[in-house]
Structures are given as C-alpha cells and as structure tokens.
Amino acid sequence: MEAKVEVKKPALPLYVGLDLSTQQLKVVSVDERLRVTHEFHVVLDELQEFGTVGGVLESEDGVTVTSPTLLWVKAVDVLLSKMQEEGFPFCRVVSLSGSGQQHGSVYWREGAGEILTHLQPSLSLHEQLQDSFSLDQSPVWKDSSTSQQCRELEEALGGPLSLAHVTGSRAYERFTGNQIAKIFQRKEGVEAYKEFDSTERISLVSSFLASLFLGRYASIDYSDGSGMNLLDIAHKKWSSKALEACAPGFDLEARLGDPVTSSSVLGPISPYYVDKFGFSSSCQVVAFTGDNPSSLAGTRLSAGDVTISLGTSDTVTFWTSSAQPQLMGHVFVNPVDDSAFMAMLCYKNGSKTRELFRDRHTNNNSWKEFNHLLDETEAGNSGNIGIYFAEPEITPTAGTGEYRWDRSGAPITEFPPEVELRALVEGQFMAKWVHAQRLGHTITASSRILATGGASGNTAILQIIADIFNADVYVQEETANSASLGAAYRAKHALMPAGTQFAEAVQDAPEFTKALSPRPHLHFQVYQPLCKRYAMLES
C-alpha cells in the first residue's frame, strides 16, 4: 500500500464526500466519528438554461442520451456558493473525495489542462471552462446507442465471455469504451463529434469532478475504470486489445492516463478553492470513484456481506475475494481494497413489478393484504415456482412474460393469488441468490444482508430474503446518500496510517439495525433444492 500523506488537522476536522448523479449534485460532510454534520444538494434541472429533463437530454433517435458537460461544471459553482452562503466551514475540511454516475465520459479539449492549473478566483468555474471541452455533450449511462460497437468489441476480444473475463463485464451499450468507439467512428460525419481529434484527455464523470477540485487532470481509479469495458481488472491496467478495438491508432491510453488505486491521495486542493472559498491549502483530494463502488463504501460492506437495494429496479452488490465474471452481472475492482473485487447484479423487475402484482391481487393496493396472502402459504410455496418479467429484463436478458411451474415441474397458466404472490417474491430472490453464487458470492457465518430502498420496511419480504440467503438482514436509516457518504468515509480512510483497513477506519460509523434472522432449516431443506430447480427453469 502506498504511503499515506501526513496532514495537520484542525481542532474539529471534517471529511467531505460529493456525488454527481444523474439528477443531482450532492455533498455530505462527516466529523472525526463519521457523524453527518452538513448536507447540501443542487437539482440539475433547476439550471434551466441547459434544458435537461431528469438531468439528461434525450435525442430524437430514442437511444442517444447525454448531459451538457458545462451543466455539471456550473452545478459545482452553485453548490459551493450555496454552502458559502450558509456558513459551511470550508477551513475545517481535511480531505475530500467523491463519486459520479458510472460509465459517463467527459472530453477535454487540447489546452484545457493548462486552464485548470490557472483558475482565477475572481471568476466562476463555468466561465473559465466554457471552451474547454471537445464534445459539449457527455454520453451518460442511459445511452443505448452503441449496440454495433458492443458486438465489435466482443468479437475483437474473442467473444462476450472472453471480454468479461478481462474487463469484468460483457459489452454493454452504456459502458465507456463502446461510447468512445462510436464517437471515434462517427467523428468525420457527425457535427457533435467533429472536434474529437482535439481531445487532450478523456475522463469519467468521477475523475472529471476530481479534476475540478485538483486543478489538473485526475486519474481514473481502478473501481470506476472497471465499468468501461477497457480495464484489465486482474492486472489493473488498460487492456491494449480493448483500447485498440475501440479507437485504432488514436493512442487512447495516453488520453485516459494511468489508472490508480481508489484510495490514492491525488494531491492538495487547487489554490482556486483556497482563495475563493477558504479551504485549507493542506486539504487533500482523494481519488473519486463511481457511484456504485462508492455506495459499497457507504454501506461498509465486508467480505461475505450483500447489499440488496429494493427500489423501482433491484440491485445486488457484494464483496468477493476473487473475480468470476459471467455473462450476467458485473465485477469491479473493490474501491476500498484493491486486492479484492465487488460484484453487482441489476434487475429491472423490482418493486415496480411487486407493486403491479400487489395491485392485481389485493383490494385498495394494500401491502398489508399482500403480506397476509404471503403468510397463507408456506416457505417454498409447496414447490410452485414463478418467473415474472413485467418489463424486459436485463438479468437474465429476456422479454416480458409470466412463467409458472407446479411442484412436478409442469408449466401451468395461473396460480391462486396467495400462491402467485409467494411465487413472485421467492422467484425474485432465488434468482438473486443463484446469480450471486455464479459470480462468486459465498455465505459465511458472519455474512449480513443490508436491505435498502422502499421495500426494506416490509418484514414479510425481508424474512424471505433472510431464509433464501441464510443470513441476518439489517436495515439502515438513510440519513444521507450512500454514495456521497461512502466518498466521505474514503476521504478519511485515505489519510490514515499505512496498512489501516477500511473496516477499522469506519468502525465509529452509525450501526445498522438488525431486522430479521434466517431460519436455517428452511434454507437447507427448502430453498437450496428449490434454487437448483429455479436455475434449471430459468436457463
């Protein structure tokens, strides 16, 4: 591990974490004991001159989605001004880090690096950087316009699974390498891309934001770099084959810069912020990372733990000691221990699908009645299994449809309401258990499930999760955004003595609340055999 930077701390030090998400720029500060002291945010659509809806601009083709790069720059101006107006004590900030929506990219024009190093405190950032980008619009994670480039990259690397083994994921339209490939291929014929050859540096959203605070180009970190289809996650360096496939002859490696560990102290904050806002000149900028890796830090996952986010769509994130990439899901370098990895699975059919079936089978759209119907059936649903895709699914890739099998394995067309609802919930979480196992997750005696999102208050659903995963389920009071909170935690960890583990750095953070415990006999006698059946039926 690299040597830590010695920083003289004020009497009441603060650590700051930022998060530039799709719709907001957020910041949180924590004290020495990791208690939240301040929170601020800027809603991007409130900067109306940029014309965004939900923080993005959607093209007429229905698949190209971007954000104006200067929107993000001006959001930093607005956020810091708001903090200054409300008396935020910038002078107490010892270090800061941040996160950004994954996969998005920023294209700095030749000469922009020189402007960054000579920012004038009498002017705003957006005034000084308005001509600093070779592309005015940054591709973002919602973009799905690169199907052709995805197939080309997979072919160049020997197929989708071979690409996954190198970069952690098969080719995805939103991933940065495929976005770069599209721009490179169309730079001669598309007006928006005509200045691409003048690009001096390509940043991710996270390293772009870090660059603003550092006053020079910030390196891409290993963890966020894992979401590009360009980083060799085992060797933690750019894959030369992937770079050449995306932009042959362009020297993409030089424009990306060398990737670094996510705990790197990049250097002191730019003098611009010292003079304009009163930051200490010794305040250190720690490498920024992606929002999903930063959320892993914010939820303080350890080996064996799993976070299940129960939102409109569901996500599963876990810490794993080895990389076992598959055609489903993603494997990233771990943001708090680069000798380990984090795996992530995303599901479009989450709470929205559960709500659809609740409305179909209950009066007055009642969760109470939904849970009552669940309780009328036994764990394992007497062997009945259902798979339900109210929306096209991405894990696995599938169109809409409803599929039901009875205990003998025979397909059937309908279930009674109480059987249907248990089949839905059990099916959703058996899928998550099966897919997590394939990506390398192993439950240990100390494993915890951290449930977040709207459905984390539903104890009937949480009990099913506990029994399927055979682990205690915890919930967290979401007093702060987990990505920005994770950035603040990492800002503190990066300044601790060399060899300090992240878990030690965050041991004073607020505890999670244990909600439910598993019933082990149900996991081994009921759900393990049922999960094997589920896996066969899904395939």
Automatic annotation (TrEMBL):
<comment type="function">
    <text>Phosphorylates D-xylulose to produce D-xylulose 5-phosphate, a molecule that may play an important role in the regulation of glucose metabolism and lipogenesis.</text>
</comment>
<dbReference type="GO" id="GO:0005829">
    <property type="term" value="C:cytosol"/>
</dbReference>
<dbReference type="Pfam" id="PF00370">
    <property type="entry name" value="FGGY_N"/>
</dbReference>
<keyword id="KW-0808">Transferase</keyword>
<comment type="similarity">
    <text>Belongs to the FGGY kinase family.</text>
</comment>
<dbReference type="InterPro" id="IPR018484">
    <property type="entry name" value="FGGY_N"/>
</dbReference>
<dbReference type="Pfam" id="PF02782">
    <property type="entry name" value="FGGY_C"/>
</dbReference>
<dbReference type="InterPro" id="IPR018485">
    <property type="entry name" value="FGGY_C"/>
</dbReference>
<keyword id="KW-0067">ATP-binding</keyword>
<dbReference type="GO" id="GO:0005524">
    <property type="term" value="F:ATP binding"/>
</dbReference>
<keyword id="KW-0547">Nucleotide-binding</keyword>
<dbReference type="GO" id="GO:0005997">
    <property type="term" value="P:xylulose metabolic process"/>
</dbReference>
<protein>
    <recommendedName>
        <fullName>Xylulose kinase</fullName>
        <ecNumber>2.7.1.17</ecNumber>
    </recommendedName>
</protein>
<dbReference type="GO" id="GO:0042732">
    <property type="term" value="P:D-xylose metabolic process"/>
</dbReference>
<dbReference type="InterPro" id="IPR043129">
    <property type="entry name" value="ATPase_NBD"/>
</dbReference>
<keyword id="KW-0119">Carbohydrate metabolism</keyword>
<dbReference type="InterPro" id="IPR000577">
    <property type="entry name" value="Carb_kinase_FGGY"/>
</dbReference>
<keyword id="KW-0418">Kinase</keyword>
<feature type="domain" description="Carbohydrate kinase FGGY N-terminal">
    <location>
        <begin position="137"/>
        <end position="298"/>
    </location>
</feature>
<dbReference type="InterPro" id="IPR042024">
    <property type="entry name" value="D-XK_euk"/>
</dbReference>
<keyword id="KW-0859">Xylose metabolism</keyword>
<feature type="domain" description="Carbohydrate kinase FGGY C-terminal">
    <location>
        <begin position="307"/>
        <end position="494"/>
    </location>
</feature>
<dbReference type="GO" id="GO:0004856">
    <property type="term" value="F:D-xylulokinase activity"/>
</dbReference>
